[in-house]
Amino acid sequence: MLNRVRSAVAHLVSSGGAPPSRPKSPDLPNATSAPPAAPPQAPRSPPARAGSGGAAPARTVEARASFSRPTFLQLSPGGLRRADDHAGRAVQSPPDTGRRLPWSTGYAEVINAGKSRHNEDQACCEVVYVEGRRSVSGAPREPSRGQGLCFYYWGLFDGHAGGGAAEMASRLLHRHIREQLKDLVEILQDPLPPPLCLPSTPGAPGSSDSSQLVGPQSCWSSQKEVTHESLVVGAIENAFQLMDEQMARERRGHQVEGGCCALVVVYLLGKVYVANAGDSRAIIVRNGEIIPMSREFTPETERQRLQLLGFLKPELLGGEFTHLEFPRRVQPKELGQRMLYRDQNMTGWAYKKIELEDLRFPLVCGEGKKARVMATIGVTRGLGDHNLRVCSSTLPIKPFLSCFPEVRVYDLTQYEHCPDDVLVLGTDGLWDVTSDCEVAATVDRVLSAYEPNDPSRYTALAQALVLGARGTPRDRGWRLPNNKLGSGDDISVFVIPLGGPGSYS
Amino acid sequence: MLNRVRSAVAHLVSSGGAPPSRPKSPDLPNATSAPPAAPPQAPRSPPARAGSGGAAPARTVEARASFSRPTFLQLSPGGLRRADDHAGRAVQSPPDTGRRLPWSTGYAEVINAGKSRHNEDQACCEVVYVEGRRSVSGAPREPSRGQGLCFYYWGLFDGHAGGGAAEMASRLLHRHIREQLKDLVEILQDPLPPPLCLPSTPGAPGSSDSSQLVGPQSCWSSQKEVTHESLVVGAIENAFQLMDEQMARERRGHQVEGGCCALVVVYLLGKVYVANAGDSRAIIVRNGEIIPMSREFTPETERQRLQLLGFLKPELLGGEFTHLEFPRRVQPKELGQRMLYRDQNMTGWAYKKIELEDLRFPLVCGEGKKARVMATIGVTRGLGDHNLRVCSSTLPIKPFLSCFPEVRVYDLTQYEHCPDDVLVLGTDGLWDVTSDCEVAATVDRVLSAYEPNDPSRYTALAQALVLGARGTPRDRGWRLPNNKLGSGDDISVFVIPLGGPGSYS
């Protein structure tokens, strides 16, 4: 998430806030008490000194949070120091000994080249058991049902303007998903279509008058069919929102600074759900074929949504921004001339006469990795960022950001997968310098060098992908074999096998 | 557009309005004075009696407009009567003698089975010359430039709640496009990239003060590249908007009743631009391969846009509608129970406790052809509908409708087309009962029965497509060979050859 937030940090720091304190337990049932996030910090501050307190029972709240890496890495104090070393940029993976990640998932990560103090990516990989709430029908549970559900879960969280939001999301988002699924445990295991209406929850008011009922008669005679799959999608969507709301509630006490992109995979009842909010990406490589499983949400891809919001709610622009896009900044001397522009309805461009309010800064500007909302942030979906404001202004940016993911579904049962078929998740540190085809080529090259039943092959593949994006130090930079610059960003990769040794069936 | 507007007509009729009068000349330069649209009429009124005044110089304003069919059909008085006969439903095409449509374009149409008084589809096919405005650079025009531009134009307009909007659009939309292109004549013929800024138009204010300039510095150093293609897209988009605004201005005097979907093709400088607003559709069939060239805009495909608008501007819902979607109408007795729903952010479904305001009618309801906005209209983009209101209410629906098309571009120079490669445009009367594959099969079957250089083959193909969607009268209805019901709607089809005898090169 390097370079994707400008100017935000000064505001975060200047916004005061309580001193770092031990967080209260999150709102969620069974939430384990977890280390608090790091306090506000400048993303370009120098790397932490090696040995400054990275041991497991950290000396201060700040130090503990600063060095937080995924627990499945099982990092020793020395390993933690190496993981935090911007000079060496050692690739980290779970140890080859002991318990593997579910499905023999491969994982590798590397810290950035020094542009933020710590690695602001976080990751989570869990098997989550969902116990049903008492029978939703209100009747005593039948013995054959209510057996609970298991889902497999992988998450990548790419933080910006601090590591707090990514850390919190990596710790709690899957619990929000579990909460949302609790009501569905029986329904999802029932071959019948989901009931459209459930009896009231205890204490809910009963039927009431219908004085608010309007005149028009129903225009549909039958009812809409709702699938089990769409219930899981809805559960994941709402879990993202509740996670974001929790961050908003707890941001003062817990110092949940910054925000994060979230890319999450849920495997449940034969289907893989890929939920993405931000600019991380997921692809399936199946028999050499590439199947995109996500879409990036950036100021460019969401330009029209952002412009529409600015147009409908001009108060959100604070008189400082215009919802129109121009191909470059309009100069005062150009007043009265005609400049190319496009608005929320247009994909093409046209000329308009420049008026005084067109001199305001455009809500959306820039191209590619330099595209920004309100000259500040380069991603438009994700979690957190509740304190994010425009530089030299108090204008909040959060209203333009969406916490909702796009969820794509892949039915694992529709295809007989071989051990070389994988789902690859990566933060933008991977994708900025690696094409889908290059990933597919690496998949082929690395996996063919291992026996199909060797469970370490997916970790080796994740490492190869991270190394291929990082490059090696040469000519005052990290460079790829073709001498182009490697990624100086944090890089994190999951490789999830879709068949073979880690079989889930 | 059958069955796509409920309840609207009563309001249109009851809204009064001036008596039918000769329209003043439209706002556009060179607009020909044209017959006024028909006055408000019930779409399900009985078919007009044959011979009730369909001759070319009609006896009354109403009669003239009622029978308006595309001029390129060159219908005789008798042909006009047959075209208006719901019982026979004779397929109409341009005569095989005399001047052909540009590119030997094929066209066929048929009236509905009696559900609206007249055929509410309209069509237009023109070659339009665009004369540049005086040199946009302000300098005297160079002799080598300013030669003007030609574009080829095809439009299908599927009216609802009356034929006025479709008739007006078929007469004027290409003129709006021409107006938008006038400023671009030089720019589009210049191999250099379009200038981002043009000198001020005469009488425009010069440079002014920059007191409104805000603080944030530009986040982009370079300027965005704007292509010639995106200028044409912008011109078409703005032409749709100006057409819609003209309808709004003139709807009283001219009786522009109802609204229409618009599907338009522009061929300019080697590229085909397909602009669609509504539920008509366009596909290219190329060497047997199907290339979709449009997307339908309906309450289902635009649900989230509509819900977002209702959420951000609740006053548009008038306290009568809820922006939430439910799988069926919520009953008052279900208050306090939990019902499946989804909001503007969700693609999945979840349960929520029913509260009083959930008993309001949903903004979007129904499925497939029965889906409706505000229980009234089944398409969400198009032109007109300025008077459309919710039944038993004064709530306007127009704010939820968009007049902007989606424009897709196809570069004709990137592929060597053969005479069997065609672009097929059809109103929903075709697509409701015909799949893309069936269209492709008909393309293959009909064209292979004709010599490649026989220019009548595309008309024969259009006729075959219309006949295949209409069916034949049998068992108290129009039935297809498989005994399913044919389309009872108006059906209109253009077949545009992309290579071969009608070559444009």
From TrEMBL, chains A, B:
Residues 207-216 have a biased composition (Polar residues). It comes from the Eukaryota. Residues 36-46 have a biased composition (Pro residues). Residues 1-103, 196-216 are annotated as: Disordered. InterPro entries: PP2C (IPR015655), PPM-type-like_dom_sf (IPR036457), PPM-type_phosphatase-like_dom (IPR001932). Residues 47-59 have a biased composition (Low complexity). Pfam families: PP2C. GO terms for molecular function: [pyruvate dehydrogenase (acetyl-transferring)]-phosphatase activity. This is Protein phosphatase, Mg2+/Mn2+ dependent 1J. It comes from Bos mutus grunniens. The lineage of its organism: Eukaryota, Metazoa, Chordata, Craniata, Vertebrata.
